[in-house]
Write a structure and sequence with these properties.
Radius of gyration: 12 Å
Distance between the termini: 30 Å
Structural class: alpha+beta
Shape: flat
Number of helices: 2
Number of domains: 1
Largest sheet: 2 strands, antiparallel
Helix content: 25-40%
Strand content: 5-15%
Number of strands: 2
Order of helices and strands: EHEH
């Protein structure tokens, strides 16, 4: 997470403390290891808001 170290969640400006995968990798090393698939999130958004969003999206598929 070089460069901008602020949470990428819309409206949040907390410090990014977690590396989040934009597209969930689900074990796929090409997604897991691709820096273009990484974004910085604060702990709150990584551990709660993003997890809820991913659960909702997985129920649609």
């Amino acid at each position: 997470m070089r460069g901008n170290r602020r949470c990428k969640w819309p409206g949040c400006c907390e410090e990014a403390t977690h590396v989040d995968h934009i597209i969930p990798h689900k074990g796929d090393p090409s997604l897991r290891d691709d820096p273009k698939n990484w974004q910085g999130l604060c702990a709150h958004h990584h551990n709660s808001a993003k997890q809820r969003l991913e659960r909702r999206l997985s129920k649609r598929n």
